[in-house]
């Protein structure tokens, strides 16, 4: 029986992972973590019977402890997350937290020789060079959960990575595909949360609307598959049926197709190299009828352009891109800034950063803090002048 921990079990990826595990019946979940949602975490405790759980929020952790008594060990804070990620018997850690908060537990898990099923793309975007080195150093496996990267991973099987010409990373285009800058100006949180194909957490749904999600995925692909930025091309594919493609040197293109449902890539990461039955709806190509493709509009959806720019420079600017986006999305969700201001915040933070090549973990966390300060102290005050 495979033994796993799930970091961020109460989120969109986390709950779908629990769903797969429960239905599969042959995976033991030893640890779970959540930020604040102890009601759902408590439900999950009854569902999968973990030995240890961690809640980021100290108060909520105390409350949960009262509720569950001695049934399960309740930890809190970052130390708690790290303990869940490094439990002795655990073989694989599913990283389904959102944001670069995932860096520390992911690093700890790799150093404790755990395989990683990675959904948490912000960790690879900001610390990709360090994570990939650690993966090699500790001889563990990293399985992508992100549907595009899972597709690429599958299209690369049995092939030689040196014979890859480029990756065709597909993007739905999000809820605002085809809109002009003038139209985007007035888009509300509700509009942006209305994704046509995928049901996901709030942050990634906003990232899909800005196309920053695809930008982060270009960077994620670069680190996962050791590619040059010019080898990752984004193709808009509104039906989200082809999850990505690999073009080889001879011009041959391999694609992976499926319905847009994250349970399939999650299940594949959990069980690799095996493919198990599940109750995800089947792809019916005659119903889909048409698969269409377009070039991305990087002038309107600047998120993608900013991501390529950061990737070209590489180094700590990648942390700035990501941290500025995390803060800007948070502000947009709280209705403190408008939709297009998300791009302004990121561009401003990137302009105010002195780039460091190959940053250490500490330099990554410093760049993150500096980014928040630049946004709060400089950008916000200039905006409110
Ligand atoms: P979500 O917001 O639904 O869930 C996030 C989880 O992380 C929750 O369990 C939450 O409790 C926890 N969390 C949030 N902030 C935390 C903090 N400060 N400290 C500790 N825990 C915290 O997010 P999601 O949509 O499930 O996405 C998770 C990750 O997977 C993201 O990196 C996202 O980009 C990636 N991803 C998601 C999807 C999807 O379909 N949802 C697809 C591909 C990749
Ligand atoms: Mg994706």
Automatic annotation (TrEMBL):
MF terms (GO), sorted A to Z: 1-deoxy-D-xylulose-5-phosphate reductoisomerase activity; manganese ion binding; NADPH binding
Task performed by this protein: Catalyzes the NADPH-dependent rearrangement and reduction of 1-deoxy-D-xylulose-5-phosphate (DXP) to 2-C-methyl-D-erythritol 4-phosphate (MEP).
Keywords (A to Z) from UniProt: Isoprene biosynthesis, Magnesium, Manganese, Metal-binding, NADP, Oxidoreductase
Pfam families membership: DXP_redisom_C, DXP_reductoisom, DXPR_C
Gene that specifies this protein: dxr
Organism: Vallitalea pronyensis
Record-stated family: Belongs to the DXR family.
Residue ranges of every copy of the 1-deoxy-D-xylulose 5-phosphate reductoisomerase C-terminal domain listed in the record: 142-225
Gene Ontology biological-process entries: isopentenyl diphosphate biosynthetic process, methylerythritol 4-phosphate pathway involved in terpenoid biosynthetic process
Alphabetized NCBIfam families for the sequence: Dxr, PRK12464.1
Annotated catalysed reactions: 2-C-methyl-D-erythritol 4-phosphate + NADP(+) = 1-deoxy-D-xylulose 5-phosphate + NADPH + H(+)
Biological or metabolic pathway of the protein: Isoprenoid biosynthesis; isopentenyl diphosphate biosynthesis via DXP pathway; isopentenyl diphosphate from 1-deoxy-D-xylulose 5-phosphate: step 1/6
Domain of life: Bacteria
The protein's name in its UniProt record: 1-deoxy-D-xylulose 5-phosphate reductoisomerase
Residues the entry annotates as binding NADPH: 10-13, 37, 120, 122, 201
Annotated positions binding 1-deoxy-D-xylulose 5-phosphate: 121, 147-148, 172, 195, 208, 213-214, 217
Domain annotation DXP reductoisomerase C-terminal: ranges: 259-371
Binding-site positions, Mn(2+): 146, 148, 217
HAMAP family: DXP_reductoisom
PANTHER family, alphabetized: 1-DEOXY-D-XYLULOSE 5-PHOSPHATE REDUCTOISOMERASE, 1-DEOXY-D-XYLULOSE 5-PHOSPHATE REDUCTOISOMERASE, CHLOROPLASTIC
Enzyme Commission number(s): 1.1.1.267
EC class of the enzyme, as a word: oxidoreductase
InterPro entries (UniProt xref): DXP_reductoisomerase, DXP_reductoisomerase_C, DXP_reductoisomerase_N, DXPR_C, DXPR_C_sf, NAD(P)-bd_dom_sf
